[in-house]
Specification:
alpha+beta, Rossmann fold, six-stranded mixed beta sheet, 11 helices, 20 strands
Amino acid sequence: MATISAEQLTKVYPNGTKALDSLDLEVADGELMVLVGPSGCGKTTALRMVAGLEQITSGTLRIGENVVNDLPARERDIAMVFQNYALYPHMTVAQNIGFALKLRRMPKAQVNAKVREAARILGLTKQLRLRPAELSGGQRQRVAMGRAIVREPVAFLMDEPLSNLDAKLRVQMRAEISRIQRRLGVATLYVTHDQTEAMTMGDRVAVLDKGVLQQCGPPQLVYDRPDNMFVAAFIGSPAMNLYRGALGAAGDEVVLGSQRVALHADVHKLRPGLERYRGRPVVVGMRPEHLMGTSTQAPGPRDAEPGPAGADADGAGHGKLRGDVELVEALGSDLLVHFHIDAERVHSDAAESEEGDDLREATGSGSAPAALRQAAVARLDPRAGVKPGERVTFLLDTTRIHFFDASTTEAIWD
């Protein structure tokens, strides 16, 4: 087994386009590292450079102890799983899985043994005699993984392997890939544009934007403590609500349009750097799941009965934010409430594509209405009796508010 190590890895195409800019990244032995970002961010280019399918402009790439910059792909001892499966339609499952071993002229008995073991791990024992056309999408993807497993490589590379599957199958296959990867204990670099895949599968997540690594760390840390506005907006679904605001001169409130939201005393303890921003503009970020409706929402296991002046019953000290409801989406387990406040919305490139897709689906239209693109989103308890056209007061746990420098977009922490 081995590690994958990139030091200042850079790719510049002949036309001058810099697809990857000084990437420093290490995938530990046995680790599943997810490289995530929007289309065109450089993640697939990085994967292809590791695979030997793309020439390295500068920097150093190591697999194990060996520098492999100039090593051909076939000599790197890695296996790659593609999004389109790339199965041979005229071959059976067994033949597809064992094809690479056959090319190595491995004895037939040994090939059969390895194929049977891979099929057992992948739950394909009963399908070994079938051809790809007779398989479901999930089974085909497992066959593609089986072909990689039997080679016993030092590392796996996976390029959007679930993108061709339907939503339900994607959830199932996320769990399957994670289970198999942990069982094999092989360093794995997994590329996706889907932040849900990144959060649920990765031991660590590396977020790329425009060829530059923005942040790398455990998924929960990246979610809880994003380094900048891009990461904050990209990780989380629905995306974080971002608004231009200002910190009060005394530092005990944040101004959003015509509203002043009182901040809990712990906010400055959690983010000491805010002291430098008293009376200054900031970008304020609020995750939909950290907003709780109070005007019509029934108390339940998720939310305590709200007390007077926006403070909840256990004294945690929630601030209050009022908004006009534009759209309500009932998801069964949650209620997504789109609402407006009179502060200026900040749109991040990280959230644009996903927000647009979500709103088009919600409204059944070919494009997202401009009013909804300017709306914030709250994820409420499904029993909240919120309706379009209402003015709702939300409770906001101000210790969960995110603050960003209005000029640099860097998160304000220390």
